[in-house]
Amino acid sequence: MSTDTLTQRPSYERDLLAQLTRRWGRRVAVKKDELDLDGHFDPGLPDFPEHLVPVFALPGVEPLDPAARRQILAAAWIAYNAKTAAIENEIILPACRLMLEERIPVRRDDVSYTALHQTIVDEHFHILMCQNAVGVTKRRRELDGLAFDPRGWAVVQGLDLAREGLSGLDRDLVEIAFSLAAETTISGFLSSLATAQDIQPMNRITVDMHRRDESGHAVVFRELAGSLYRSLDAAERALFRDALISGLAAFRAADLDPWVGVAAAGGLRIETGQLAEWASARPAPRRDTGPLQLLLDDLGIDPSLVEAVPRHG
What we know:
Blueprint: H1 3-8, H2 11-14, H3 16-27, H4 66-100, H5 110-141, H6 154-162, H7 168-183, H8 186-194, H9 201-230, H10 234-252, H11 257-264, H12 272-280, H13 290-299
C-alpha cells in the first residue's frame, strides 16, 4: 500500500487504539476457550526454568536430590504467578482506573475509554489465569500451604517508596509512570517462559497467552501516557521522568524474601543476606525496552533514560 493511500485513510483507521479495540475480541486470552490445565500437566517435567532460580547458584549450597529440586522449581512457578498478580493488582489496575478519571489529563474519547476497560478486563483475567495455574501446581506438587505477601515484591515496595509523601496529581503521575514501566518492559521476561520448551506445557502456554495480551497493552499505555506527558508542565514532566526511572529500576531489583520461601519448599534453608550478596555481584537482568523507546522517541525524551537504569534493592 502506498504512502499516499495510507494518508488518505480516515483518522480512526490510523488510530492505534482504535485498531486494538476493534480486534480485542479476536486477540485476547479472555475471549478464547479456557485451557485444560490438568490435561497439559506432565508430572515428569519441571515447573520453572532452573536458570531463573537464583537459589541454585548460591555459593555453598549443598547438592539437592531430584525431589527437592522439583519442589523448589514448583515453588518458583508459584512465586512467579504471585508476583505477576501483585503487579497487576497493585500497579497496573490502579493506574488504569486513575486514567479513567476526568482529573487525569489523558486522551479523552470513546476509544480511549474502551481501550482502558478492555485492559482492565484482560488484567483481571490474567490474575485468574495465575490463580488457576497455581491451583493445579499446588495440588499436584502438594504445596497447598505456600503463599507470598503481595506487598513483599521489590517493585511494589519501590512504588510505595516513590510515592511516599506525595498527594494529588504528583502521586497520580508516579503511579502511572510505574505502570508504564511495567507494561512496556514485561514482554521480555514473559518470553523467557513462553518459549521454554523444557518446562510444563501448562505453564508455558499460560504465560504465552499472557504475553500476547501484553503486547497490546504496551500500545495502550504508550498512547495514553504520551497524551498525558504532552499535557504536563516542565516540573510535572520532570517528576514523571524521575518516576519512570524509579519504576524501571524497581522492576530490575532483586527480590529477596520471596526466594527464601521458595528455597524452603524444597527443604533448603537460606538467608536474604546470601541472596543480596549474590545479586550484587551479578548484572541486573535485562528487560526489553523497545516499546518504551518508541514512546521516548515520540516525546523527544533522551533515550539514554532507559539505557543505563541503576539497579536497587
